[in-house]
Amino acid sequence: MFTEDFLPLHTHIRPSDWAVFNGSAQSVFELTQKDKTFFEGLFKKMIDEQASVYTNKYDLLFLYVLECIHGALKLEPEAAARNQTAATRLTDAFKNLLADQFPLVYPHQQLTLRTPQNYADRLAVHTNYLNRALKEVTGRTTSLFINERIMQKARILLLHSNWTVSQISYSLGFEEPTHFTRAFRAYYWQTPSSLR
Fold first, then answer.
1. Which of 15, 41, 58, 61 could hold 21 in an S-S bridge, CB 3.0 to 4.6 Å?
2. In sequence order, which residues have a C-beta less than 8 Å from that of residue 26 and are 6 or more positions away?
3. Domain 86-195, what fold?
4. CA distance 31 to 18
């Protein structure tokens, strides 16, 4: 996955500017043999360039990434087939806000948006309106989306980091580690320590 960290500092382009990154476009494509050959060749060029001693190789790698993005955009079916309503646009905006909070890389990082009210305020809508829109489009509530993502991240951090349970708890916005343990047990039916 290419993230904003991969892009050179001098570029104004951000992944959220591109439909393939911001959740508004198709994210998985079935490739034809021709497409497969194109992308394999592109990634081979990237690997070869990464191993080279060329001074400006990162600029060239960036261009290859752009070529990859444009290749994916060309595979995207026409947007006219999509039925965009206010509810689907709000749902997309909410999902983007939720995704933008991650990854948490350092224990001192903390989620800034933790409650449905935080998201509604950022999106400039009433909490009930946001909840109705999400329910209409996805069948799920705002709280369910937020909790599910926080618990997924908690599980990943417990399994793949050396952070303490207290650090994970703080990072995910829980006031006390005991609150985190209780929420984790309710979601996964086991304590954070037993999972680890």
1. 15
2. 75, 76, 77
3. Arc Repressor Mutant, subunit A (1.10.10)
4. 20
